[in-house]
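ARCHIVE CARD
SHELF: 3
SLOT: left
DATA:
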Amino acid sequence: MESILARASIGISELKLNPTAAIERAHGPVAILNRNKPVAYLVPASAWEAICERLEDLELAEIVKARSGETPVSVKFEDL
């Protein structure tokens, strides 16, 4: 059985009937089920924005790690 990575779930048929109600009831991610298997997740905009920011931070951290072995270059502030 697949694990559901949300505290709430809704059938896809119920979602089709009234998507606005599903969004309003959601206080976090909602698993969308088709035949009792998760096929998608409905995520509030604020949570999605936080996820995107976190992913961007992780990408930037990888760049920093990759460049940490490089020789630093001295520059004057005025040159920037």
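SLOT: right
DATA:
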Amino acid sequence: MAVIFVAWRSGADQPGYAAAAAAMDTLAAQQPGFCGMDAARGNDGFGITVSYWADEASAVAWRAHPDHAKVREAGGGRWYVGYDLHVAQVTRSYGWSREEGERI
């Protein structure tokens, strides 16, 4: 499963956002069924984070995690102007890279 979080940052409380984001990245990686994450953010505050889960139950359990719920609530009130969330089933996935560390 892919949980696609598309968000527009408010620019408020940059240190608080950075700390919360790092904590959530670490916590998500410790959850059963977590398969990985990709993220990108522009200088304008627009960003996309995709987390990958073994199944829908794992993704739902992550959403229900109490620490994640607290940070989501703070995000809506402080760090984000708006967001969209999409959940999709991944039917195929592959990649290619010249060598480790060469992606720009």
